[in-house]
Specification:
The complex is a heterodimer of chains A (110) and B (418).
Chain A: E1 2-9, H1 18-37, E2 41-43, E3 53-55, E4 60-62, E5 71-79, H2 82-89, H3 93-98, E6 101-106
Antiparallel strand pairs in A: 1-5, 1-6, 2-5, 3-4
Chain B: H1 7-23, H2 28-49, H3 55-73, H4 82-89, H5 91-97, H6 100-114, H7 121-132, H8 137-143, H9 148-163, H10 176-196, H11 202-221, H12 228-241, H13 244-247, H14 267-280, H15 288-301, H16 310-323, H17 327-341, H18 343-351, H19 363-375, H20 379-392, H21 396-408
The chains are: A alpha+beta (110), B mainly alpha (418).
Chain lengths: 110, 418
């Protein structure tokens, strides 16, 4: 088994009603539950604040404030190979619900 | 996973009401933003960490923090109501301001604020659904089978009226009693929209009934609003809602009262309805809610349709025609007379209705005529009436019911043009 990091990137972030938000939340919980049941969820990771800072050689600025593609969180996943991990990522609700994306990155072997 | 039972939607209504009392009605939009933010945070963290043990407390604490941040950002914080200063300064008072008992009365105040006489009845109902029940504008529109733009305008205008009042309605005000009947009326309309309304989706309809009952329960729990009419209103809702399991079958098809499998009626709701009727039977006032609850309870008590005391039901419809006459009440009265005296007499009554013209677009007017003709064996006429009803049917459920009825009218004899 190889390890992969899923980076969840925000999509359009269209306004949702309370009932829609609850439904989204429940779809995520069901998705994680399924991954865990099948032994793919090494670490469900942590959600990230929308705010923060960006440090560069020149200075530190507030940000990143991207309207789209902002990383909202990450998880550590176990899968056979990249194709398998990518397959697993397609069920992530962020894709259907928010037109967001999942970036699948293999963890480098030590 | 534990079912959260509309948690987000309902908590949204509770929290908006609580925060609006603190910020003032003119800052309703700020309260709505704060609640939206709290729900977003819940979505982001709960999806990863799972739902916390006390989701309501979690949401309220988060809303409180979001509110404090928003207030610090707002330059206008100083112009807020005095409570806001307390809200900003004393941690302790926040919990007091947002505590359970305060929350319940905040929702009542919000209900009374929404039922402002300067807001039309239909806008009051839309506003209650939107603010107190957490339905988005789009969801309100689909509940009423209306256009989203129309509902949006209606809600925006109503909010402008609300915002003009600065503070939420005071439950101790002298004119509070005058507004209680508007609140009851709005909740009655909300329930009816769910129960009889034109909406196609049965799931939405039951949600409307549930919300109307939840808000009516609030009226019955608060000393100032627990009047006989409030009990009668909730009683009639319970007694009608008890029939819901038998009214729609698994396929979502309608079954009329007299054809329902009465063993499927919810006995707990019937018992609750009877208990509330006892509570409503005090004081001199006899409202339409009392009479409607009375009719529903007679149906609920009859184990078989043949056990129904039609004589008493007709007399209750007579009372209803005196205190709240309407063409639909008159039609139901005629149908009760048909049950008591036979289809011929019922048809005479229907044909003699004073307001018959106003029923011409009501599918169940034609369906009633069809039922009565069917009962006296006039298949062709029955069929014509059911066809007229079918043209007016407002959703697939009504259409399927009428199509089944048309099939019950045996095919006309050969040579008959229709």
């Amino acid at each position: 088994m190889a390890q992969f990091v899923f980076l969840y990137r925000r999509g359009q972030n269209a306004p949702a009603s309370p009932a829609q938000m609850q439904a989204r939340m429940e779809r995520w919980q069901a998705w994680f539950k399924d991954l865990a049941a099948k032994g793919h969820l090494k670490d469900r990771g942590l959600p990230l604040e929308l705010t923060g800072a960006v440090a560069t050689k020149k200075n530190i600025t507030d940000g990143p404030y991207a309207e789209k593609d902002l990383v909202m969180g990450y998880s550590l996943i176990e899968a056979r190979d990249l194709a398998h991990a990518s397959e697993l990522s397609t069920g992530c609700p962020i894709i259907a619900d928010d037109s967001g994306s999942v970036e699948v990155r293999p963890v480098m072997n030590m | 996973m534990e079912p959260l039972d509309h948690l987000f939607r309902r908590e949204s209504g509770r929290m908006v009401a609580a925060l609006t009392r603190i910020f003032g009605v003119d800052h309703l939009a700020l309260a709505e933003d704060v609640v939206q933010e709290a729900l977003c945070r819940a979505l982001e963290t709960w999806k990863v960490h799972g739902t916390p043990d006390h989701p309501r407390a979690w949401l309220m604490a988060t809303a409180k923090n979001c509110a404090l941040d928003a207030l610090r950002r707002e330059r206008t914080a100083r112009t807020f109501a005095p409570e806001v200063a307390r809200f900003l300064d004393e941690e302790q008072s926040i919990d007091e301001l947002l505590g359970g008992a305060a929350m319940a009365s905040d929702q009542l105040r919000m209900m009374f604020s929404c039922c402002n006489p300067r807001i039309s009845e239909e806008a009051q109902v839309a506003l209650v659904l939107h603010i107190l029940c957490g339905f988005s504008v789009g969801e309100v529109a689909s509940a009423f089978l209306s256009n989203e733009e129309t509902i949006k305008k209606r809600i925006t205008r109503a909010k402008a009226v609300l915002a003009g009042s600065k503070r939420l309605f005071e439950l101790t005000d002298a004119d509070f009693a005058a507004r209680l009947s508007s609140v009851q009326r709005a909740l009655y309309l909300l329930f009816n929209e769910g129960y009889h309304g034109a909406s196609a989706e049965s799931a939405v309809r039951e949600e409307l009934c549930d919300e109307a009952m939840r808000l009516s329960s609030l009226l019955c729990e608060h000393a100032l609003t627990a009047m006989p009419a409030s009990y009668a209103l909730l009683a009639l809702m319970c007694l009608h809602a008890a029939r819901l399991p038998a009214r729609l079958d698994a396929a979502g098809d309608f079954t009329l009262l007299l054809d329902q499998d009465r063993s499927r009626w919810n006995r707990e709701l019937v018992a609750e309805g009877q208990r509330l009727m006892d509570l409503s039977a005090t004081g001199p006032e006899l409202t339409a809610y009392h009479v409607e609850a009375g009719i529903a309870s007679l149906h609920a008590a009859a184990a078989h349709p043949d056990d129904t005391p039609w004589e008493t039901i007709v007399s209750l419809y007579d009372v209803l025609m005196r205190i709240r006459p309407s063409p639909v009440v008159a039609l139901n009265r005629a149908l009760a007379i048909a049950q008591r005296d036979g289809a011929e007499r019922g048809l005479e009554e229907v044909h003699g209705l004073a307001d018959r013209e106003r029923l011409k677009d009501y599918p169940f007017y034609w369906a009633a005529l069809g039922e009565l003709e069917l009962r006296r064996g006039k298949m062709d006429r029955a069929r014509e009436h059911f066809l007229a009803a079918l043209v007016l049917a407002r959703n697939p459920t009504e259409r399927r019911l009428l199509e089944r009825r048309i099939a019950d009218c045996r095919p006309p004899a050969a040579g008959d043009a229709r």
